[in-house]
């Protein structure tokens, strides 16, 4: 029975963790696809607007000359337009107008212009422009000789709006080796003059596709996504404009496709990625938890079997386990001795004093721990100079009991703990001191001491003692219940076999329910422990977050399943500014606060919650969640954010005491702060700060940043 229950619990936990990781992978993929698509949209809109602005500036000239056009487009050289080859001015001409157009533009600033028509009929000649990639100018070339740019010029003239060509290889790249040519495109905008919209020609921008989108896709993919940008070719089949492969290997089991409007056409962005390569999407943790659960189940099953077996067999196993434990303790002591020797030789402080008690040597580590001493100072001045206290940090350390003083008297001291507090260390440092007597070359007695800074270890030990105590208690309670009720199930089954009837069956069902309840409590504690660890260790994925949309999603998820007017909370959501945060972790903060506000409500009273926010003068956004619940007793408002602390009036409500600790970790990792205060109308007000979105901060704050 113990084995079956343990395996069932392990399977349930494993399945929940796998589902959670799969959901995280889908969320990561959607967020990264949206970011990549927006990056492509922004870059293409930028190029279209540059072309539109240039065409408008050209049309605003009283007399458009090659020199004036050069002045208009000259700033584009410094804009580092990725993939751009040249921005040129194109004018139309028929076969009969070629000579006249050539002569006119030679007078208008292109004296060496020679028009080279291709074929008969309508032509479109480059009469002015500047290269943007260092290639040779294209003056005089007839752009109608290629199908893609000719169609683009015609479309732009018909629509009066910028147009983009099908994908093809630029005329300027025809002289390059075939392996260096890129799938490229041109953008064209018509040039009109005056209110009568007199057509003068076109402004055209040539762009190499891979160079154009390379930087954008690299930034959007972050080495995790396969990105392919597709557009129609001259034969109307899809052609790759640019592509970027992910560094990670594995099956691309997540795929997204997004259509992106570009001028008068639509391109397609295809995104794929291996779920295992996305942060937080795949890990060995579910399998580790499953293996751990199976191991624990095996241990518990073995323990039950041992308890049920004979006394002699139990004694044999106890003796064997005792021998193994002693061997492990001996090995641990040897490892501790070796580790101590290594630490002493690498990073610990060393101090040597002579027979008169004056320091002869301080190594750098000792100076960092103790502060720079006075070589002429004797034993009597150590207390005042170094600030030596007992581990309570208050009681001065007796000079006669100092390890170095005892060593001068011929006594060994091992790992004596004390507190050092002086102007160099006003907050106090805890050190462990070991001292030995030595003999000088003249035969007199001196002393050597090794100082080890154990401040962080003391802090960790204090935290671990509290952590281990609470976890052990909270896990032991459901385990004890599981074991006890499992035994009751066994007794009930024995009664059934003996003809116990309905009462025995009912007892078995009640006990099974208690077993399941204990398992659910263990699963809740494990889940919150995972969230607590993730709030500390997970990588922050900062992005601009629509806080109002996020809060609305949380409120909907928390209330949609509630039926009936008496059960449905009254939740008001005010105006909430956008913020810069990790959307997954920020959602967890909002969800915990809203969930607590709903849970900690007096019986028979519908929850009432107000969620508001405002921008602070320092550039942060302050979010406030106010409820009309049972409140927090005086003196406990700060303590509720500690790990495993539960308010003294919340015993009737289930919980582990980790929810608000998780909130504090997440908020502080974003550089903010969280606090709780009484609500004047009854209940509690929780408030936290989070950085505002960069583009919504006050101008003075953005400038200073």
UniProtKB/TrEMBL annotation:
Entries under SMART domains matching the protein:
CHASE (SM01079), HATPase_c (SM00387), HisKA (SM00388)
The record's subcellular locations are: Cell membrane; Membrane
Residue intervals passing through the bilayer: 287-308
Q: What is this enzyme's EC? A: 2.7.13.3
Q: Histidine kinase domain location, by residue?
A: 470-694
Superkingdom of the organism of origin? Bacteria
Q: What membrane topology is given? A: Multi-pass membrane protein
- Its main localization is membrane
Query: Can you name this protein?
Result: Sensor-like histidine kinase SenX3
Q: Which organism is it from?
A: Actinoplanes missouriensis (strain ATCC 14538 / DSM 43046 / CBS 188.64 / JCM 3121 / NBRC 102363 / NCIMB 12654 / NRRL B-3342 / UNCC 431)
